Amino acid sequence: xxxxxxxxFNLQEDVETFDVIHxxxxxxxxxxxxxxxxxxxxxxxxxxxxxINSTAVIIGAMLVSPLMGPINGMGYSIATYDFPLLRRSFxxxxxxxxxxxxxxxxxxxxxxxxxxxxxxxxxxxPTIYDVLIALFGGLAGTVxxxxxxxxxxxxxxxxxxxxxPPLCTAGYGLATAQLHFFFGALYLFAINTVFIxxxxxxxxxxxxxxxxxxxxxxSKARINRWITVIILVTLIPSIYFGYLLVMKEQFSDKAxxxxxxVQVFRGDYLLRSEIDADLQQITLIYAGHxxxxxxxxxLKKKAADFDLKQVALIFEQGISFSDITGQLSEKDALxxxxxxxxxxxxxxxxxxxxxxxxxxxxxxxxxxLRAIFPEVTAALFAxxxxxxxxxxxxxxxxxxxxxxxxxxxDNVERTKVKAWLExxxxxxxxxxxxxx
Length: 436
What we know:
alpha/beta; Glycerol uptake facilitator protein; GMP Synthetase, Chain A, domain 3; 3 domains; 4-stranded mixed sheet; 3-stranded mixed sheet; 15 helices; 65% helix; 11% strand; membrane; DUF389
């Protein structure tokens, strides 16, 4: 039974011949012709995707990137002690890295969009989890490369290990003079490179690929020591960063539970909260009464119940009752001003309407006068105010009508015109002036 189960995991039946594997790895190493153009397109595709924060575009760049070939070549050549192949692989790999950095840096220098989005930020803080992704992804890629059943493993490995985006993020760091972006992304790329190559070395030795050159035992030991040093140098910082990531996640979880427990405190409602795992601080913004020192002490004591003894609590006042009262008073004052302005506008409108009515009165009087007295050529109607020393500063409103004629109206007819106007305007004190 055990033998049957082990048989399910046997790779020998699917492994290609060693010569076929060797030729396939040699072909994947070369970066010239169409492979070089694909590399260039992948560089700009990944840069654009990072620039516009498009996950789909970044995945496309991962799929078409030919960087896996030289990395597998380095791992395979180390495992088989094929040093000429190692030099060729390292040469192609170095050229691809340099070209990617130069192209992505130039792109981000020219690009008008320079904000760091989430896709960029995600490639600046590598952890031990990125080591595991590169290791298992590299193993899957090596199995696919050395067996007859290719399937869709290679595209999946390209997406999982993500070699091109970290290089382009490093270019962004150079273009914007943000060295923490450059070194963080370059470290992630180094993790992917080292552990993909290491997985190829391990798989090649397990499958007992034939050694291409005779190497002394002392040289083998020296090579193994260098491999160990490179692994440790790459691995140790990632373990530390992974530890920090776990601590941040634990803090965020505790802080979230604490914030949910103080949504309502002493009748005041928590408007907004901010959790900063890097600085180990929580900002609480309440609406209602202003928090006293005792209230703040009680909140800090409650935070300790969630194992947040070292947390820095920052308190801010949102909308307070005193602010609401003051705002209501301001609103009442504004309403009074708006009412006064509304009355003033109405008075102004009435005055304008009155002026228009007077203008229309003059036009109507002229038309009616000419129907009875054709000699009338013009009429002016006005209601000016008369000021005198006898009315104690109170003006007297007087109605005036100025009638123009062609000079043919005699005194009798002018008396008739005046009488008609007084009756028409119902004003016995009407002043009528005739002019020729």
